[in-house]
Amino acid sequence: MLRTDRQIRLGQAALLLFILVCWEVLPRADIVPKLFVPPLSEALGALARYHQDYLAQLPTTLLEIAAAYGIACGGGVILGMLIASSARARRMSLPVLRSAYAVPLVVLYPVMMVWFGIGIGSKIGFAVIFAFIPTLLTTVAGVAALNPALLETGRAYGAARWQQILYIQIPASLPTLVGALRLGGALVIVGVIVAEMLGAVGGLGFLITRYRTLLNSPGVYGGIILVLIITGGHEVLLRRLEQRIERFRA
Known about the structure:
The protein is mostly helical.
């Protein structure tokens, strides 16, 4: 098992190194135009050169991500658990939710700006809408797939609905819930950055748009590197949570 994990980590490191080398070599060899993709060294140089600008905008983006994450992922998981615990609720709500998710959500951002203004409220609102339904649907799908015998056993012992959810459904569906958080968190980050790029007075997305307008490609990719660091940090936290869950279930 340890050998397999080591091989997986080595494979991941090799893939990352290959991507980074291509990022540096292909633009310098003029295989990819530097205006579209600058070399990695230039993007890192811009990150260092404009670090004060990035650091000034980073707290805004992190605040928006944290708020949207708590609402979208927390609310999506809780409501998903409640819907999944009732077959009638699933039949009533899932067709509506799936249809709503098919709507191109970007068209709702102007409405968000009218409701909440150009500040952080519209970014949080858009990211919540962007991530809430997928998180909820993933939670419902995972919890509904649990072995019905588990719930039947709980009911046989007189467990109330809330006890079935707390002591049976949640422990049995923890891996699915982490998957829902992974999907919802990624969509929250994407939603915040997209909203900041569409219209904002601060944030990493706003800074990326400003550098793009100035045709400063290294500055654009410096901001993208920061976004990748945020998503990578989110993934690391969820992996640690998964490891604790595996030890708990073992």
